[in-house]
Amino acid sequence: RKEVEQDPGPFNVPEGATVAFNCTYSNSASQSFFWYRQDCRKEPKLLMSVYSSGNEDGRFTAQLNRASQYISLLIRDSKLSDSATYLCVVNIEGGAYSGGGADGLTFGKGTHLIIQP
Amino acid sequence: DGGITQSPKYLFRKEGQNVTLSCEQNLNHDAMYWYRQDPGQGLRLIYYSQIVNDFQKGDIAEGYSVSREKKESFPLTVTSAQKNPTAFYLCASSISGPPRVYNEQFFGPGTRLTVL
Description:
The complex is a heterodimer.
Chain A: E1 4-6, E2 11-14, E3 19-25, E4 32-38, E5 44-50, E6 55-57, E7 60-65, E8 70-75, E9 84-91, E10 105-107, E11 111-116
Parallel strand pairs in A: 2-11
Antiparallel strand pairs in A: 1-3, 3-8, 4-5, 4-9, 6-7, 7-8, 9-10, 9-11
Chain B: E1 4-7, E2 10-13, E3 19-25, E4 31-37, E5 43-51, E6 54-57, E7 64-66, E8 76-78, E9 87-94, E10 106-107, E11 111-115
């Protein structure tokens, strides 16, 4: 069964610091990767997709390491508003969901990040 | 504004009752999904629909039912057969569904169901 593993944290980080966390996935056929952000008692919102070459969006950088089967998220100059749970999401493009088992989309349990003033 | 709406935000139900959660989207997305999230847990897929009048079971479909009579609507019924229905229910949609699941999913604000 495909799995996505994340360190649940919490990561307690001072404001302004750089923080990074990883997500490992077990299925080598995984092809699409995302980081979502979820605030307490709210819905997940897409933070960024993760491309093979790595990608950056402002203070956020996402990397993919296919050989070791993990993706990472780096947050620079952290802000108090970055406090949230970060969910790793892995898809298998071309795979088919099947009755009783959805093998196309897997969510990690999330990493809880707390930025302290 | 385009988006996904869910109602109600909070729902209380007596044990043994069926209840239906609403999900509507005006994004013109083909695919819609229902997830359940329990405290400290990841999202688990209940049902999904790739197109109108078609839907498939996810990982934890037992005790739930859905319909997809309109493109913009994908209601979820939590039946009395669901053993532990208290949870946070999230509806999502994407431009297209399986097998092309590269597109990101957009989530509604969720419905928090409590069984008394």
